Amino acid sequence: MSAVRGHMQPAMAVVKRDLLLSWSYRLQFVTGIFSGFVSLAVFYYISRLVRVEEFSPEAYFAFAAIGIVIFTVLTSTLQIPQTTLRQELVAGTFERFLLAPWSSAVTVAALLVFPALYALTSVIGLIGVGAAVFGLQLSWATVPLALPIAILSLLAFAPFGVLLLASVIRIKKAPPGANYMIAGLSLIGGLYFPIALLPGWLRWASEAQPLTPAVELLRSTLVGQSLADPAWLSLGKLFAFALVALPASIFVLRRAIDAGRLSGTILEY
Amino acid sequence: MGEAPLLALEGVTKDWGERPVLRDVDLQIESGTATGIVGNNGTGKTTLLRVATGIVVADRGAVRFRGAEIETHRVRFQRELGFLSAGDRGLYARLTVRQNLDFWGGLAGMPGRRRRSRIASVLADFHLGELADRRVDRLSMGQRQRVRIAATFLHEPSLVVLDEPETSLDEVGVALLAEALARLLGQGGAVLIASPEPLDLCSGDWWRLDRGRLEPLGQGIPRQASEAQSPVALATTSAARR
Questions:
Q1: Fewest beta carbons within 10 Å, which of A63, B134, B169, B241?
Q2: What value of ipTM does the predicted structure carry?
Q3: Would you call B85 and A95 a contact, using CB atoms and an 8 Å cutoff?
């Protein structure tokens, strides 16, 4: 069995398990999608209420709608896996991850996959609802490009999720401020307003993380809004994060697991 | 040069902070043999098993599987290792018995066809067939323990490590476990068991863990409950009684 296939099998088992567990709570499975619909409705009416020079109401709704769907994916990918890992520790099921052949770190990192896929699927539905119910104007010619960009964005974002998992391994819960990190990312990533409005001293942070280029590219492909940077530059940033930060974060997770095994605290909760 | 023991602990030392738990523990487990560790609560039996299975790393000393350090040959070691932890945890309450086993098999890297075939085997071996599609949170504690034991044997390990395996088991469950251990030993596998008192699951060498050190308790302690009746007969008789 090749190493890649060897790693894939436990990772796929985790994804399948997460799907089955999620489906066992059917109401939650469905209401997760509904909460995004409510956010869309809120921003639809805000866009009707507020008049700004830069946006028509339709353009601001489209701007905010893409921000909402990205925030949905962001929170799902960053929050759910750390909660799941904490539950694994408490329920005693985490031990099985440590006994799996191949890399425990890759198996643990696989906790990110199902929440990301679920969020991706829900936001596709959400965008459809936005178009059907609220008249969200989609740029149909470039909409198909959004899927590979969304997958690339998820890979660029995964390092944040993996680092949160590493912190759960070491300190047994998500680090204080993890939720603020998500809120902070949504602030500097320009989810609900253009980053040009941010003060200069904060704008560098918008350029130093993958959310901003992901948001730019997805807005451009989904609703045809213009790009601040050339597309190749935004794509390059996402590729760089995925190729450099993802392996680096898995290395950190591996070190966290090894440190827990050495200190003997790995199964504590 | 003779064949290396299946599992060897060499000078294993482990402290919890300032508290010493294991002190220069040496233990060799040969193929086809059973080894038991007894000790009072808190003497370090579980720590010893966690070190032996590579879940926790010793401060000093080495753990070798077929002569190779488990830290540098983890994939090979963990493919051949079956571990049952103490207690009743480690199952997904919302999943069925079959789904739990399927997940454990997937984590063990078993390909789909072999996984399905082995799930069918262990369901039969541990009399879980009728419970296969029942959710785990709807099982009794003894039934859950049988599921955990079935998962331990699922990937056909050559080394099985059991921490207080008789927890919650009725005599049928104990007999089924004894039968599985007999098969494992007959096929050249080995078993390491920890328990507060010696168990009559299979005959083997028993050691007492006291103040971090192992002292021999006795060799070839015979099974008691199965002297008059084989595990199969015992299981059948008990099942008929129900």
A1: B241
A2: 0.86
A3: yes
